[in-house]
Specification:
Length: 463
């Protein structure tokens, strides 16, 4: 499952947070402005309605036939519609008036002598209705104000607030980007440094310019941890190296003694010869173990010499395989090179690569009846070297663990003189990793195990 990015989560948090806050602020602002604007407009219209009602009453007293003209004049002056109701019927109305705007409930309440004001929305329009009774002439005046300009103002306010919310969100996104960079960049450097250390570069340290207090504490703690780790590894490597060196002298003496006893083997009893064979086999294993421990200790301490050469890959594999077979007294394995890989070049330390091939051939000799073939081919920008053996193969559950130190799998449960030290494949892994490659266990087409080495192809052409 792919993990989410901390940087993206910070950006999303800032963007969503600022959008929510700005939207909440916009909503509160809109509601407050709407309330204030509508209330102010209603108060103004209400006062105007009382003035207009007084004019209508005066017209009804002095010149009733001029009532229609007076209503039209009021409509033009106040941008409203005026209706006059008396004795349960409409007496007169202005040109833009519609009796449907006034409900029966409002008419009843005004007829009872109450001043009524009500805000309604008709056909998407906001209207304000004021009903004023004129008891002296048993008449009710209804004035309908169209709040179109107020609607336009509120729409513009919504637009401005919406744009403001979006701008605020982008400002928050920019702030989140700045915070994410400032927060994640030190973590990325720590991650890169940790990866470099895991890759074997124990000289890596964090060096951040003008860090904050928390980052400074993290940097100092990280560097201190790495320094202590390096000291511990160096002490362990020195200890293993010292122990191995101290063991070499008595082991050499034992080897010399065993060689002398082998010269007088015929003089020993059958039980003595069997004991001598066991001693010779275990001593050989012990000597190999000491040599492997010495090499491993030097590798852990970074003391192994590096002599990188750019050489033809196919010829390197041939020479290393033959040299390994001769050293072990085994027949030279068949070498199969894909035509496209014939001219490939690799940058390697010959000594390391020869040790890799020696360990692989030795492992096949001990546990898998020898090497069937060594196959070389090209896979993109990687050179692939497959060492196939004639054994029963390696179980899937052991294919990762065979590169652990002192792991021998099923061989650990079988007593015999073909025992190894359990360090051969671990050294193969260390050497191949130092060469910039990888090693893994697969199944051979012949049914045995396939040890696959991949190395980066060097693109340079030899002079």
């Amino acid at each position: 499952m792919r993990r989410r990015s901390l940087r993206l989560r910070l950006l999303a948090t800032f963007a969503v947070g600022t959008l929510l806050l700005s939207s909440l602020f916009a909503i509160v602002t809109y509601l407050a402005f709407e309330r204030v604007l509508v209330s102010n407009q209603q108060q103004t219209d209400l006062r105007q309605s009382f003035v207009n009602a007084a004019l209508i009453r005066s017209t009804l007293y002095t010149s009733p036939p001029d009532l229609a003209n007076q209503l039209n004049a009021i409509e033009q002056a106040t941008d409203s519609s005026v209706l006059v109701h008396t004795h349960h019927q409409w007496l007169s109305k202005s040109h833009g008036a519609a009796t449907t705007d006034v409900t029966n409930t409002i008419i009843t309440m005004v007829d009872q002598g109450h001043v009524v004001q009500q805000t309604l929305r008709r056909n998407g329009r906001l209207i304000f209705i004021v009903g004023v009774p004129i008891p002296a002439v048993e008449t009710q005046v209804f004035e309908v104000f169209h709040l179109g300009s107020l609607n336009d103002t509120l729409r513009r306010l919504v637009t401005v607030l919406g744009i403001g919310a979006l701008v605020t969100m982008f400002v928050g996104l920019a702030g989140g980007l700045w915070v994410a960079r400032r927060t994640v960049r030190p973590l990325e450097r720590v991650s890169s440094a940790a990866a470099a250390i895991a890759g074997g570069d124990l000289t890596t340290r964090l060096d951040l310019s003008r860090p904050d207090r928390e980052i400074q504490q993290l940097t100092e703690s990280f560097n201190t941890m790495v320094s202590r780790l390096v000291d511990r590894l160096e002490r362990d490597a020195r200890f293993a190296s010292d122990v191995s060196h101290e063991l070499r002298s008595p082991l050499t003496t034992l080897a010399t003694t065993v060689a002398v006893l082998q010269q007088h083997r015929d003089e020993l009893s059958p039980r003595g010869r069997a004991s001598l064979d066991l001693l010779s086999a275990d001593l050989a294993i012990f000597l190999a173990l000491v040599d492997d421990l010495l090499e491993m200790a030097r590798g852990d301490a970074g003391a192994l010499p590096e002599e990188v050469e750019i050489v033809p890959a196919a010829e390197l594999v041939r020479q290393a395989s033959r040299s390994a077979a001769q050293r072990l007294g085994a027949p030279a394995p068949a070498i199969e090179v894909e035509p496209i890989a014939t001219a490939d070049l690799v940058a390697v330390d010959r000594r390391r690569f020869e040790r890799v091939m020696t360990n692989l051939v030795a492992n096949a000799q001990r546990y898998a009846h020898g090497v069937v073939a060594v196959r070389v081919h090209r896979d993109g920008d990687r050179l692939v070297v497959d060492v196939d053996d004639a054994g029963p193969g390696i179980p899937v559950e052991e294919r990762e663990r065979v590169f652990d130190r002192f792991f021998r799998g099923r061989a650990a449960h079988a007593r015999g003189i073909a025992h190894g030290t359990g360090l051969g494949l671990s050294l193969v892994h260390d050497h191949v990793t130092a060469l910039g490659g990888t090693v893994c266990v697969l199944e051979s087409p012949e049914g045995g195990a396939r040890l696959r080495i991949t190395l980066p192809v060097h693109e340079a052409v030899p002079a």
